Each structure stands twice: as structure tokens, then as C-alpha cells.
């Protein structure tokens, strides 16, 4: 259902000095945290770096995926919050640089298949060597990022161009790019997850791992998008309402359930098959302090958000919804921590000042790219012909 409204020009977002100071302080904490980590325990420092890099790169490409999905389905309800999704994509070029830093300076601390001596004494790693080698690793990463960036330029470029020209057919011209990106994304994000996370334990494999990572990243994306919508708030000037928030909250609830379903499916199938090369992954996360972390994942990433998001009103109240979104973002970091750290220490769940600083540093870089994008563009695509329909969007259930 749509209600008729009078179009009001949204306010511009100003990248003020206070925002720049926050980003700068967070980045400084990241540099300090990385320096402390490299001096005390380089392996742990690069583990934390991997967690931060993977989280924010995922946020960027997942945002582009959801944006492409809106074009593909000709969605009207989401037009006025489209710039929120686009703002996250702005991190992508920086993400490539940060990823290459990891590959060239930190990968040797993370991936056993990069050690020639280990590979020489392991028949399975020799068998996987044509794929798991540094040259092909770099090539795959650069190609994947290059294609992601190409699609982002086309999809975001048409959206921003429409603000200048008002051409309606730019929407239609974006659809083929969106379709192609969705297909490429499914393959490339799976490969990205395999390369940077699953290959940490190169003897272990899961054919559902890419879907598992997708589910968690989508859950985190909706949480982050809701928080940005709440942050922009009154700047939308009535063009974004509680009904938009409600729909985003429903997506958040849906992907909370989806992540839990995929997580259970992966666990159940591997445990039931009882194959040593598969079950070792969960064995490492079922002993020592990791057993507590695994239990916390079930409670904090699924059970608690599921119960908190069930009521209709819960998806419409900013003061209630914001803490739930913060919890979900925290648990996505916890999920990545749970995936990375037990590979190197099966007994102890270590997290210190260095790790916290590194994660905050990545957060500062992401916020800078996001604020910079919003400050250079209208926060609502004002010349999209569907903008009034989106502003009048109503949820009837």
C-alpha cells in the first residue's frame, strides 16, 4: 500500500570535523594495535587483521549484492534507502589494498600451504598445490576484486548519474549488470571465503561453507544498514519512515534464521558423516575455552536476536532495534574470530588490546569511506521516478 505525500528535499550529509576526528582516532588505534601485535605476537596480529579485513570486505560486496537484487526485482520500497547500500560499497577499492597487504606481508603467518617444507611432507597439500599457491592466490584475489569494482562502478555510476540527468532508462540499463553481478557474486564470494578462511585448515572442507559465510554476512549487513538509517534519521526529511525500518528488520530476522539453519546443516551433516578430515574442524571448536565461545554463538547470534526481533513493534522502534543491531554486528565479528583463531590454538580463546585496536582501525577506515561517499552524493536518489512511491511505502502486516 502506498500513501500520497508531498516530496521534500532531503538534507545533505556533511562530513564534519567531528566525523573525521572519530575516523582518525579509530585508525590511529588500529595502527597502534597492529604495531603492538607485530612486536609481541605477529601471528595473532595477522589473525585479527584477517578478521577485520574479511568483515568489511564482505560488508561491501554483500551491499552491492542486495543493491543489485533491488534493481533486478524493480523494487520501489527500497529506493529511498538505496544510498545506504551504496555507501557501504565505497570501501571496496580500499579493501583491495588492505587485502593485498595481508597477502604479501601476513599470509605466511596464516596459511600452512605457503610453506614449501610443510607442502613437501604432505601428500594432500601437494595434490592441492596447483590451486593453493601464492601466485594463483594473488591472481584470483586481484581478478575477483577487479570484477567487483567494475560492477560497482556500473551499478553505482548509473545511480549517481541519474541524480544529475534524471534519465529514467538508467534503471533499465542497470538491470543486466545487476543480473550478471549476482551470478558472479555467488561464485566469487564462495571462492573468496574458501581462499581466506577455509584454507586456514587446508585438510578440512565443507561444500556449504560459502553459503554459511553469505548467511552471516547478510545478517550483519542488515544490522549495519539499519544503524546507518537511524544515524541519518531526520536528514531524510520524511522520505524514509518506520515502514522502511520495519522491512529491514524483517530481513534481519529472516537472515538470523537463515544463518542458524545453514550453521546447523553444516554441523549436522559433517558430524553425522563422521569423517576425520571434516569433523576435526568442529573438534577444535568443542574443547577448552572454544566450547564456551561455540555456545555463545548459538545464544547471541541466533536465539537472542530471534526472540528480540519477533514482535512487530520491535522492528519499528529505533531505541529498541539499535542495540539488537549492535549485538548482531558483534556476533559477526565473534563468528569470524571463531573461524580463524582455533586453527592456531585449539585450547585458548585469546583476545587482547592489540586485536581490539586492529578491529577498531578497520572500522575507522570503513566509516571514512562511507561518510565520504554520503557527503559527495544526495542521501536519497532524488531524480529516481520511484522516489515518491518509496516515500509513501507502508507495511500492512
Sequence-ordered SSE layout with sheet pairings:
Layout: H1 17-40, H2 42-72, H3 82-89, H4 92-106, H5 116-120, H6 123-128, H7 134-165, H8 169-196, H9 209-232, H10 242-273, H11 276-284, H12 290-309, H13 318-340, H14 353-376, H15 387-391
Helix pairs in contact: 1-2, 1-14, 2-3, 2-4, 2-8, 2-9, 2-13, 2-14, 3-14, 4-7, 7-8, 8-9, 9-10, 9-13, 10-12, 12-13
Radius of gyration over C-alpha positions, nearest whole angstrom: 21 Å
Low-confidence stretches: none
**How far apart, in Å, are the first and last alpha carbons?**
11 Å
Element order: H for helix, E for strand: HHHHHHHHHHHHHHH
The largest sheet is: none
The coarse silhouette is: globular
Give the domain tally.
1
Question: How would you describe the overall organization of this protein?
Answer:
The protein has 397 residues and is mainly alpha-helical. The protein has one domain (18-387). The protein has 15 helices and no strands.
Question: Could you write a compact summary of the structure shown?
Answer:
With 397 residues, this protein is an all-alpha fold.
Supply database-style keywords:
397 residues, globular, 72% helix, mainly alpha, 15 helices
Amino acid at each position: 500500500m502506498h500513501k500520497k505525500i508531498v516530496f521534500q528535499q532531503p538534507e545533505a550529509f556533511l562530513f564534519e570535523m567531528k566525523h573525521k576526528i572519530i575516523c582518525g582516532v579509530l585508525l590511529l588505534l588500529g595502527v597502534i594495535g597492529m604495531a603492538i601485535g607485530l612486536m609481541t605476537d605477529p601471528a595473532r596480529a595477522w589473525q585479527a587483521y584477517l578478521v577485520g579485513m574479511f568483515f568489511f570486505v564482505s560488508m561491501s560486496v554483500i551491499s552491492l549484492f542486495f543493491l543489485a537484487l533491488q534493481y533486478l526485482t524493480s523494487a520501489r520500497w527500497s529506493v529511498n534507502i538505496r544510498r545506504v547500500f551504496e555507501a557501504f560499497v565505497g570501501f571496496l577499492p580500499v579493501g583491495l589494498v588492505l587485502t593485498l597487504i595481508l597477502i604479501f606481508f601476513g599470509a605466511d603467518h596464516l596459511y600452512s600451504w605457503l610453506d614449501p617444507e610443510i607442502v613437501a611432507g604432505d601428500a594432500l597439500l601437494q595434490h592441492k598445490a596447483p590451486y593453493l599457491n601464492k601466485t594463483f592466490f594473488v591472481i584470483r584475489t586481484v581478478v575477483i576484486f577487479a570484477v567487483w569494482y567494475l560492477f560497482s562502478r556500473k551499478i553505482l555510476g548509473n545511480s549517481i548519474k541519474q541524480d544529475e540527468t534524471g534519465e529514467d532508462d538508467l534503471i533499465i540499463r542497470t538491470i543486466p549488470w545487476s543480473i550478471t553481478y549476482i551470478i558472479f557474486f555467488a561464485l566469487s564470494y564462495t571462492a573468496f571465503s574458501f581462499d581466506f578462511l577455509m584454507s586456514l585448515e587446508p585438510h578440512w572442507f565443507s561444500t556449504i561453507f560459502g553459503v554459511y559465510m553469505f548467511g552471516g554476512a547478510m545478517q550483519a549487513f542488515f544490522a549495519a544498514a539499519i544503524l546507518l538509517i537511524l544515524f541519518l534519521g531526520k536528514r531524510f526529511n520524511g522520505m524514509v519512515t518506520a515502514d522502511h525500518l520495519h522491512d529491514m528488520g524483517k530481513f534481519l530476522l529472516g537472515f538470523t534464521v537463515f544463518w542458524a539453519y545453514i550453521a546447523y546443516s553444516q554441523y549436522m551433516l559433517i558430524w553425522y558423516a563422521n569423517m576425520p578430515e571434516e569433523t576435526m574442524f568442529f573438534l577444535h571448536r568443542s574443547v577448552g575455552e572454544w566450547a564456551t565461545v561455540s555456545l555463545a554463538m548459538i545464544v547471541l547470534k541466533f536465539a537472542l536476536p530471534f526472540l528480540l526481533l519477533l514482535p512487530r513493534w520491535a522492528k519499528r522502534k529505533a531505541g529498541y532495534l539499535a542495540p539488537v543491531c549492535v549485538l548482531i554486528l558483534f556476533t559477526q565479528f565473534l563468528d569470524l574470530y571463531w573461524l580463524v583463531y582455533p586453527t592456531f590454538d585449539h585450547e585458548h580463546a585469546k583476545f587482547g588490546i592489540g586485536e581490539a585496536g586492529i578491529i577498531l582501525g578497520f572500522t575507522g577506515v570503513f566509516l571514512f569511506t562511507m561518510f565520504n561517499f554520503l557527503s559527495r552524493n544526495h542521501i536519497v536518489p532524488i531524480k529516481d521516478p520511484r522516489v515518491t512511491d518509496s516515500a509513501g511505502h507502508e507495511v500492512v502486516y
